Amino acid sequence: MKAAIVTESGVQVKDVPEPQPAPHEVLVRVRAAGLNRADLGVAAGHAHGRMGGPGTIIGLEFAGEVAAVGSEVPESIRPGMRVMASGSGGYAEYAVADWGRCTPVPDANMGWVQAATLPVALQTMHDAVVTNGGLKAGESILIQGASSGVGLMGMQIAKLMGAKQVLGSSTNAARRAKLAEFGCDLAIDTSDPAWPDKVLEATGGKGVEVIVDQVSASVANGNLRACAILGRIVNVGRLGGSKGEFDFDLHAMRRISYIGVTFRTRSLEEVREINRRMRADLWGAVEAGKLRLPIDRTFPLAEAAEALAHMKANAHFGKIVLEC
What we know:
The chain is α/β, with parallel strands linked by helices. The chain has two domains: about 1-120 and about 295-324, Quinone Oxidoreductase, Chain A, domain 1 (Alpha-Beta Complex); about 120-260, Quinone Oxidoreductase, Chain A, domain 1. The chain is built from ten helices and 15 strands. The strands form three sheets. Strands 3, 4, 5, 6, 7, 14 and 15 form a seven-stranded mixed sheet that branches. It has a six-stranded parallel sheet with strand order 10-9-8-11-12-13, sandwiched between helices. Helix 3 packs across helix 4 (about 150-160). The termini are close together. InterPro entries: ADH-like_C, ADH-like_N, ER, GroES-like_sf, NAD(P)-bd_dom_sf.
């Protein structure tokens, strides 16, 4: 089969053996694969969880038909089903995923490209906003890095779960102008040092109850200022740096719960539970077409390196997808 792999000369599409599913896995004939920021690190030769190094097939999410199932896969998942999945090795004609990370694609209103944009965003942001952020109806929330695909999904989920105010950040004016289409009540420019004051003003001086942070170091102390007393900050990503200053006194004074999350150290059982909770809360909205992500551009699998370069240039809005 064809697959985009890491080589010493960069990402190349080559013929590699078709993967075989373990007893708990599903083999998927991939039709489309979504790009994610973590793919850039893997493509550069860095490790991401158990992925990384020469020969690694890139890709964390994909959609396609079930080609085969392992002996421990529940009977509800069968060959021929259209599924979307999170996993590894998605930039390929075939990929495997744990059965608990596979979800049927709604047949009525969703094509392969749209389906491939959803697994990581839905799982990551339901876990951050609802499970770890503990967002309650009537509370306010700030999504840092809101113009990313995951960020756009986070704002939509927050609205669906009854948030009173949804704030989203982007340092790009054109992208900020588009955030309202995805549930944002107030777009914040974190390149303005006074941005925490804007959040406090919008919330009557209280601050937001929940912050989902995909940026980290460059906004860490601003988050503490913008967060309500007894608020929750969920650290999802580190696009603004993994190390930086932190005002421990302000953290203590505001009695903020600071929560770190990643899928890289979670067990199969934990990820299955994340997917189960997401489906319980969100699947009706997904089937109704209420939770969707914009498509910036699609590329054929043969142009995987070009697709990654497009993402690295950071000029896109929405998801980049490979059609396999």
